[in-house]
Fold:
Amino acid sequence: MTEPALYVYAVAPDRPGAADGVTGVDGHPLRLLAAPGTGLAALVHDTEPVPYQGPDEDVRRRVAEQDRAVVAVWERTGALLPMTFNVLVAPDPSPRDPRTAEERLRDWLASRAAGLSSRLRALDGRAELRVEITVDRAESARDDERARALEAEMESRSPGLRRLLAKQLEQLRRESSERLADALHADVRRRLLAVAEDMRERSRGVRDPGEADVLSAALLVRTEDIEAVGTVLAAVRDEQPAARIRFLGPWPPYTFADLPDGPREPAAPERA
Structure:
């Protein structure tokens, strides 16, 4: 019979009952596997030693299920270090020193206890927010006299000339939005860092051709300061009508977990 593996969702403080009633990927009931003497536990479910695979739709569903489970336990513990999708710990079948998946995971927690505990303390009562700010190209040039003149001229010109004028207008809007985006970037960073403890800029996955990028970032904030971040963003929106702001969260601190060493290290959880 194949020894079961463990699917690992997160490292958390050892809080008995924090995972009670929480289900994860494919509805698996979750539990906290404690490492005695460390004050740490891993949020896990038992599984076959095979990573999840399948169509993109199944992967997206499972990632969402994992996120919901992590959020549920994070809300109960106040601090948590999330793992990425498909982190498995398999049994060690070595003839000299065979170990179960639970033994391997407990050993990993014990060997990294100081770093993990320190990071959990630093993140206690903190949340991650995602902020994306762009500039609408057309709106940024709305008060530009050259843009208004081009728009007015296009109404009375032939189709061929209108296409030429449209290209000129597009270039003018692009230049205007890029200037505004550059000016906003430093100002917005400064204002957000006044209320956030940390910021890490991220690349945008999907770009709208009608917008210029200002900032895409993850923020680490104390839960009591989440409203202050919203206040800053509302002020930016009011001051600059061309700004487009997307504000997501709060979430567990995925971007700021900073595990002491990666899952590929010896004796650490294995990433598929």
The beta strands are 5-13, 31-35, 40-47, 81-82, 87-89, 126-136, 198-201, 211-222, 243-251, 270-271. Confidence is low (pLDDT under 50) at residues 262-272. Residues 14 and 40 are 5 Å apart (CA to CA).
